Amino acid sequence: MENIDPHSALFATYAIAATLMILKAVGMSWLTVVRMMQANGGFRSPEDLKKTLLNPRPDPAQLSPNERVERIRRIQLNDLESLPYFLVAGFLYVLTAPPLILAQGLLYGYVASRLLHFAAYFTGQIHEVRAAFWSIGSLILIFMAVRVLMAALGY
Amino acid sequence: MENIDPHSALFATYAIAATLMILKAVGMSWLTVVRMMQANGGFRSPEDLKKTLLNPRPDPAQLSPNERVERIRRIQLNDLESLPYFLVAGFLYVLTAPPLILAQGLLYGYVASRLLHFAAYFTGQIHEVRAAFWSIGSLILIFMAVRVLMAALGY
Amino acid sequence: MENIDPHSALFATYAIAATLMILKAVGMSWLTVVRMMQANGGFRSPEDLKKTLLNPRPDPAQLSPNERVERIRRIQLNDLESLPYFLVAGFLYVLTAPPLILAQGLLYGYVASRLLHFAAYFTGQIHEVRAAFWSIGSLILIFMAVRVLMAALGY
Questions:
Q1: Which residue among C5, C45, C88 places its CB closest to the CB of A74?
Q2: Which of A125, A126, C6, C54 could serve as a FRET partner for B152 with CA atoms 20 to 30 Å apart?
């Protein structure tokens, strides 16, 4: 593995892919907030039923699951099962000094697969569509992790 | 972006913020354990109802959600939606060689926002208080990610 | 803390432990897929009840929780409460230039504890067994984080 060179095109590729994924993930949190405000519900904590400026007429039904909110939470959980591992695997992968074009294909391919997965999940496409995009991202992640493992083992 | 210099004050700032957040996150797991032992419940797996030294009188009610335990699990899930992304964004951010004072403000500001969010959630403050602290941390995370993205794109 | 030297045995130790854990985590996602296909259920989204090639006879019961699927999801969630933090703490820990033998003991010890935790959870062992393996991994994580924090503070 080569030393980290943050000025290199390889490292910039990683930094771009990583921050796009981080912004995407953080966006899910804000989207949850937006949908909770639209629905005036989908809350989770008992204290969210206290009367406040933002919740002038509390109603126990506000603690019931709201499908529009739960959908974003499911997308967010799906992100969590993959993105943190991608962020580390991608970093270690560029340290193995792969060809730039391959790294770009894998890292940007992962980003594209996750954005398409989001689009499919967000709009409620059939499971097969969602699963296809998810699988592409997962396979890229596995490929990078195996490559790093082999490099670290000296192969 | 500058090379990593683990001896620099900039990198030490990141390492301090990162490890404080990691210890905070791990603390949530242990707090869940403590509360499950106090409640003798809030378990999740069928096998947790087997009679053992630590659970001499199993009771199906032990698998019901326990609000004191669930509260910590919600805090932990909230951590998960932010901390792993912060750990990577903060690392990449210090690689962009920002002014030390700005990095300290952002990184320690994030840590403070998460500790205050914990305090508000733990003590059941109204949603507005919790949301305010959460928002500060989330905006810091977005700022750092955008800054890294711009640096990687050459701006 | 020393500079990153990806060619060092220390960094290779981290890269091996990190990628093994990433592959383990990604494996949980695929295991969830396998079990959902075996059970033809355990789905979560309303659109998963649409009639498709892979789901020719949709049934509302397919959206009910399936214990065999939920077990893997609980393991996956347990991974999430620890692995992302380990991946960052382990990285920062090897930057503090610890003795190789100690780093190997901690990093591979963590990997072993998580694989044994998986084996215990997967086969439904009593809580005490699962908890013992979980605790070992968590204590290793805490040790590494505290060590990095002290190094960053100059101790």
A1: C45
A2: C6
Judged against a pLDDT cut of 60, whether residue C1 lies above it is answered with no
- Select from C2, C10, C70, C127 the residue whose CB has the most chain B CBs within 10 Å, as the one to mutate to test that interface: C127
Contact A22 B88 (CB under 8 A): yes
| 3-class secondary structure per residue, C25-84 | HHHHHHHHHHHHHHHCCCCCCHHHHCCCCCCCCCCHHHHCCCHHHHHHHHHHHHHHCCHH
Choose, out of C2, C13, C19, C78, the residue to mutate when testing the contact with A (most A CBs < 10 Å): C19
Q: Which of C23, C47, C83 sits opposite A124 (nearest CB)?
A: C47
How is residue B6 annotated by DSSP? T
ipTM, two decimals:
0.95
Query: CA B68 to CA B48: how far, in whole Å?
Result: 18
How many residues in total does chain C contain?
Answer: 155
SS (H, E, C) C89-137: HHHHHHHCCCCHHHHHHHHHHHHHHHHHHHHHHHCCCCHHHHHHHHHHH
| Contacts with C107 (C-beta within 8 Å, 6 or more apart), sequence order | C13, C14, C16, C17, C90, C93, C94
Q: Is C4 exposed, middle or buried (0-12, 13-18, 19+ CB in 10 A)?
A: buried
The structure's pTM equals 0.96
Contacts of C139 (CB under 8 A, 6+ apart): none
* Mean pLDDT for back-to-back runs of 10 residues, chain A (155 residues): 70 97 98 95 93 92 95 96 98 96 98 98 96 98 98 93
Question: What is the C-alpha separation between B70 and B66, in angstroms, rounded?
Answer: 6
Out of A22, A43, A52, closest to residue B145 by CB = A22
Predicted pLDDT of residue A155: 86
Q: Tell me the pLDDT of chain B (155 aa) as tens digits.
A: 445 666 799 999 999 999 999 999 999 999 999 999 999 999 999 999 999 988 999 999 999 999 999 999 999 999 999 999 999 999 999 999 999 999 999 999 999 999 999 999 999 999 999 999 999 999 999 999 999 999 999 98
Contact A22 B80 (CB under 8 A): no
Test C50 with A146 for CB contact under 8 angstroms. no
Flag if A125 and C47 touch (Cβ within 8 Å): yes
Mean pLDDT to the nearest integer, C82-90: 98
Which residues of chain C lie closer than 8 angstroms to A85, CB-CB?
Answer: 22, 25-26, 83-84, 87
- How is residue B100 written in tokens? 């030390």
